[in-house]
Amino acid sequence: MLLLPPSEGKTPAPEGAAPLDLNALVHPELTARREQVLAHLARVSARPDATAVLGVSDGLADEVARNTALREAPSGRAAQVYTGVLYAAAGLATLPDAAARRAQASVLTFSGLWGVVAPGDRIPAYRLSMGVTLPDVGRLAAFWKPALAEVLDARAAGDVVVDCRSATYVAAWKPRTTGAGAAEWVEVRVLRETDGRRTVVSHNAKHTRGVLTGHLLRREPEARTSEDVLKAAQELVGSVVLTEIGSGKDQTLIEANLLDGKPRGPRTLELVLA
């Protein structure tokens, strides 16, 4: 399983595309909760203070206004609607057939509105973060947590879960790592080495996680364990992961390590750039 955050910006589907079909989304057991969030989001987004409630700038008012008519809005594949840095680096929208089938089976994007969606699920562009406290629903991570545990604990059992999410989305579901039905949970952390000193990267971390995601989806054989994930990451060592805008400086992956974590927490895959 590959767990991704949504991109902040979203690309609307072309006019004339089919509207949303909630029953066609992955894990239809979540449909009732999706209906609930969708209805309350539409009401909140019509309020004068909608941008403040949803925690976005007034410059995004037009995107928030779209939330009032999501049921009728054109829908596109999630892999095309989510168009942020991570998704571009992974190339989710342009995967070859075999990798696209693997992505549909293994990739889940976490969402404050949908809970989770798969790359091929058709959704409209929307604006709602998992970190929002939605009136009459509550804090979205807490709202989704029991429902996601019910469907994802069983799905993850015995598998390796590669986690590229931010803390906001991790709060909605954490894989079980002990007891019956445990999963191997691997979080991905990106570091930069400068003059022998390593620091955590934030600006280019999404891009680097996207490169790893794309590699895991395209490579053969498929990763089945945390050690397989480490091996896949080590295959990228020596390659230029990105070129910084402005400075034009290449960032090369120089090291990949798998660190043990706390007993109930994830192991950490460290990707070191220089």
Keywords:
10 helices; 274 residues; nine-stranded mixed β-sheet; two-stranded antiparallel ribbon; globular; alpha/beta
Describe the model.
- There is one protein chain.
- Helix content is 33%, strand content 22%.
- By secondary structure, it is α/β, with parallel strands linked by helices.
- The chain has one domain.
- The strands form 3 sheets. Strands 1, 3, 4, 8, 9, 10, 11, 12 and 13 form a 9-stranded mixed β-sheet that branches.
- Strand 12 and strand 13 form a beta hairpin.
- The longest helix has 17 residues, at 140-156.
Short note summarizing the structure:
The chain is an alpha/beta fold. The protein is built from ten helices and 13 strands. Strands 1, 3, 4, 8, 9, 10, 11, 12 and 13 form a nine-stranded mixed β-sheet that branches. It has a two-stranded antiparallel sheet with strand order 2-5.
